[in-house]
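Our preliminary data section would be incomplete without showing what the modeling component actually yields. Below, a chain of 115 amino acids is followed by its predicted structure, encoded as tokens that our downstream tools consume directly.
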Amino acid sequence: EVQLVESGGDVVQPGRSLGLSCAASGFNFSSYWMSWVRQAPGKGLEWVSSIKVDGTGYYADSVEGRFTASRDNAKNTLYLQMNSLKTEDTAVYYCALGSSTSGPRGQGTQVTVSS
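Predicted structure:
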């Protein structure tokens, strides 16, 4: 059974940084693309980033240059480093199996950016 457990969400001020983690189990993590998706209050799921098996990352225009996804295949863990956070980054962040918003995902972790 695929299990994805996100952690690291918090309340931060605009301009600050925050790191998220996602512990994966139940599948061969090192063989799959992984993604981060988010859902802001009252909005649908938004793709944020996908990362290939080799660590190559792809990003939505809204986070390009500010967010960095990485993975540790030995630890079955996915990361998202978020810098220069903006109020519009406020959302529940999910890690997802695969390269889109439609794959299995965890329960999410809340990120609130507010002054």
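The chain has a mean pLDDT of 97. The chain has no helices and ten strands. Preliminary results of this kind motivate Aim 1 of the renewal.
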